[in-house]
From TrEMBL:
Keyword Signal: yes
PROSITE patterns given in the database record: PROKAR_LIPOPROTEIN
Signal peptide range: 1-29
Lineage: Bacteria, Bacillati, Actinomycetota, Actinomycetes, Kitasatosporales
Keywords of the record: Signal
Protein name per the record: Bacterial spore germination immunoglobulin-like domain-containing protein
Amino acid sequence: MHPRLGALARPALAALTLGLLAGCSAAPADDPQPAPVPSVALPAPKQAAAPAAVLATPPAPGEVRVEDGPFTDRVRLTGLRLDGGRAVTGHLTVTSDVSDVLALELRAAFYDAKGTLVGTGAFHYQEEEEASGRHDGPHAGREGIDLTVGADHLTGTPAAAVLSLPVLVNE
Protein backbone atom coordinates (compact mmCIF):
# COMPACT_ATOMS: atom_id res chain seq x y z
CA MET A 1 0.00 0.00 0.00
CA HIS A 2 1.23 3.46 -0.80
CA PRO A 3 2.36 5.25 2.43
CA ARG A 4 0.28 8.36 1.76
CA LEU A 5 -2.86 6.28 1.00
CA GLY A 6 -2.36 4.33 4.24
CA ALA A 7 -2.05 7.56 6.20
CA LEU A 8 -5.38 8.78 4.77
CA ALA A 9 -7.19 5.46 5.16
CA ARG A 10 -6.35 4.89 8.86
CA PRO A 11 -8.20 7.98 10.21
CA ALA A 12 -11.19 7.32 7.94
CA LEU A 13 -11.34 3.70 9.11
CA ALA A 14 -11.10 4.78 12.76
CA ALA A 15 -13.92 7.33 12.34
CA LEU A 16 -16.11 4.72 10.64
CA THR A 17 -15.47 2.21 13.44
CA LEU A 18 -16.32 4.76 16.15
CA GLY A 19 -19.53 5.75 14.32
CA LEU A 20 -20.63 2.13 14.05
CA LEU A 21 -19.84 1.42 17.71
CA ALA A 22 -21.71 4.52 18.87
CA GLY A 23 -24.77 3.46 16.88
CA CYS A 24 -24.74 -0.01 18.48
CA SER A 25 -24.86 1.10 22.10
CA ALA A 26 -27.52 -0.50 24.29
CA ALA A 27 -30.60 1.45 25.37
CA PRO A 28 -30.68 2.53 29.03
CA ALA A 29 -32.22 -0.02 31.40
CA ASP A 30 -34.80 2.51 32.66
CA ASP A 31 -36.34 2.93 29.16
CA PRO A 32 -39.47 0.72 29.55
CA GLN A 33 -40.60 0.61 25.90
CA PRO A 34 -38.75 0.64 22.62
CA ALA A 35 -39.42 3.44 20.19
CA PRO A 36 -42.48 2.71 18.01
CA VAL A 37 -41.81 1.47 14.51
CA PRO A 38 -43.53 3.58 11.87
CA SER A 39 -46.12 1.74 9.79
CA VAL A 40 -45.27 0.95 6.22
CA ALA A 41 -47.80 1.35 3.44
CA LEU A 42 -47.31 -1.30 0.79
CA PRO A 43 -48.45 -0.72 -2.77
CA ALA A 44 -51.56 -2.54 -3.94
CA PRO A 45 -50.87 -5.76 -5.85
CA LYS A 46 -50.45 -5.34 -9.57
CA GLN A 47 -53.42 -6.24 -11.67
CA ALA A 48 -53.15 -8.16 -14.88
CA ALA A 49 -52.67 -6.01 -17.94
CA ALA A 50 -55.81 -5.17 -19.86
CA PRO A 51 -56.19 -7.10 -23.12
CA ALA A 52 -55.28 -5.43 -26.38
CA ALA A 53 -58.21 -3.62 -27.98
CA VAL A 54 -57.12 -4.90 -31.40
CA LEU A 55 -54.76 -7.76 -32.25
CA ALA A 56 -51.79 -6.83 -34.45
CA THR A 57 -52.32 -9.98 -36.51
CA PRO A 58 -55.94 -11.00 -37.12
CA PRO A 59 -56.63 -14.46 -35.66
CA ALA A 60 -57.44 -17.59 -37.58
CA PRO A 61 -61.07 -18.70 -37.05
CA GLY A 62 -61.33 -20.71 -33.83
CA GLU A 63 -57.74 -19.95 -32.84
CA VAL A 64 -56.81 -19.85 -29.14
CA ARG A 65 -53.48 -18.15 -28.50
CA VAL A 66 -51.62 -18.37 -25.18
CA GLU A 67 -50.02 -15.10 -24.15
CA ASP A 68 -46.52 -15.46 -22.69
CA GLY A 69 -46.41 -14.40 -19.06
CA PRO A 70 -44.62 -15.03 -15.78
CA PHE A 71 -46.37 -18.38 -15.17
CA THR A 72 -46.88 -19.88 -18.64
CA ASP A 73 -43.63 -21.85 -18.35
CA ARG A 74 -44.99 -23.56 -15.20
CA VAL A 75 -48.08 -25.10 -16.80
CA ARG A 76 -49.05 -27.27 -19.76
CA LEU A 77 -52.22 -26.20 -21.56
CA THR A 78 -53.66 -28.81 -23.91
CA GLY A 79 -56.81 -29.26 -25.98
CA LEU A 80 -57.54 -25.52 -26.07
CA ARG A 81 -60.45 -24.59 -28.29
CA LEU A 82 -63.04 -21.91 -28.74
CA ASP A 83 -66.22 -23.74 -27.76
CA GLY A 84 -69.25 -22.38 -29.56
CA GLY A 85 -67.69 -18.93 -29.66
CA ARG A 86 -68.67 -18.26 -26.06
CA ALA A 87 -65.96 -20.03 -24.03
CA VAL A 88 -62.40 -21.35 -24.15
CA THR A 89 -62.12 -24.95 -22.98
CA GLY A 90 -59.10 -27.15 -22.42
CA HIS A 91 -56.95 -28.91 -19.85
CA LEU A 92 -54.30 -27.41 -17.55
CA THR A 93 -51.55 -29.25 -15.67
CA VAL A 94 -49.11 -27.48 -13.36
CA THR A 95 -45.67 -28.86 -14.29
CA SER A 96 -43.46 -26.94 -11.87
CA ASP A 97 -44.82 -28.27 -8.56
CA VAL A 98 -47.14 -30.97 -7.25
CA SER A 99 -48.25 -29.09 -4.13
CA ASP A 100 -51.80 -27.79 -3.80
CA VAL A 101 -52.74 -24.79 -5.90
CA LEU A 102 -53.83 -22.00 -3.57
CA ALA A 103 -54.84 -19.63 -6.35
CA LEU A 104 -55.05 -19.90 -10.12
CA GLU A 105 -56.57 -17.41 -12.50
CA LEU A 106 -56.90 -17.69 -16.25
CA ARG A 107 -58.22 -14.81 -18.35
CA ALA A 108 -59.51 -14.95 -21.88
CA ALA A 109 -59.87 -12.05 -24.28
CA PHE A 110 -62.31 -12.80 -27.09
CA TYR A 111 -61.80 -11.24 -30.55
CA ASP A 112 -63.91 -11.06 -33.70
CA ALA A 113 -62.64 -12.08 -37.16
CA LYS A 114 -61.00 -8.65 -37.65
CA GLY A 115 -59.08 -8.95 -34.36
CA THR A 116 -61.20 -6.46 -32.40
CA LEU A 117 -61.86 -7.18 -28.72
CA VAL A 118 -65.49 -8.20 -28.17
CA GLY A 119 -65.41 -9.55 -24.60
CA THR A 120 -63.42 -11.04 -21.75
CA GLY A 121 -63.82 -13.81 -19.19
CA ALA A 122 -62.02 -15.33 -16.21
CA PHE A 123 -61.59 -18.77 -14.62
CA HIS A 124 -60.65 -19.05 -10.93
CA TYR A 125 -59.46 -22.22 -9.19
CA GLN A 126 -58.13 -23.29 -5.80
CA GLU A 127 -57.52 -26.67 -4.23
CA GLU A 128 -58.35 -25.88 -0.62
CA GLU A 129 -62.04 -25.60 0.16
CA GLU A 130 -62.77 -22.66 2.45
CA ALA A 131 -64.99 -24.63 4.86
CA SER A 132 -63.05 -27.88 5.21
CA GLY A 133 -59.52 -26.86 4.20
CA ARG A 134 -59.22 -29.90 1.92
CA HIS A 135 -59.82 -30.68 -1.74
CA ASP A 136 -61.45 -33.87 -2.96
CA GLY A 137 -61.38 -33.22 -6.73
CA PRO A 138 -58.57 -33.48 -9.28
CA HIS A 139 -55.28 -31.71 -8.57
CA ALA A 140 -53.77 -29.30 -11.10
CA GLY A 141 -50.24 -30.41 -10.15
CA ARG A 142 -50.94 -34.11 -10.60
CA GLU A 143 -53.55 -35.22 -13.14
CA GLY A 144 -54.48 -31.68 -14.17
CA ILE A 145 -57.86 -29.96 -14.37
CA ASP A 146 -60.37 -29.22 -17.09
CA LEU A 147 -61.07 -25.55 -17.60
CA THR A 148 -63.79 -23.42 -19.10
CA VAL A 149 -63.33 -19.66 -19.44
CA GLY A 150 -66.71 -18.20 -20.39
CA ALA A 151 -67.16 -14.88 -22.15
CA ASP A 152 -68.90 -12.09 -20.23
CA HIS A 153 -70.86 -9.22 -21.84
CA LEU A 154 -70.01 -9.88 -25.48
CA THR A 155 -70.30 -6.94 -27.87
CA GLY A 156 -69.82 -9.05 -30.99
CA THR A 157 -69.27 -12.59 -32.23
CA PRO A 158 -65.97 -14.14 -31.05
CA ALA A 159 -63.86 -15.83 -33.70
CA ALA A 160 -60.75 -16.38 -31.57
CA ALA A 161 -59.35 -15.90 -28.09
CA VAL A 162 -56.13 -15.05 -26.28
CA LEU A 163 -55.59 -16.84 -22.97
CA SER A 164 -53.38 -15.44 -20.19
CA LEU A 165 -52.36 -16.76 -16.76
CA PRO A 166 -51.88 -13.76 -14.43
CA VAL A 167 -52.09 -15.69 -11.10
CA LEU A 168 -50.55 -19.00 -10.01
CA VAL A 169 -49.81 -19.57 -6.31
CA ASN A 170 -48.70 -22.97 -5.01
CA GLU A 171 -48.64 -24.07 -1.38
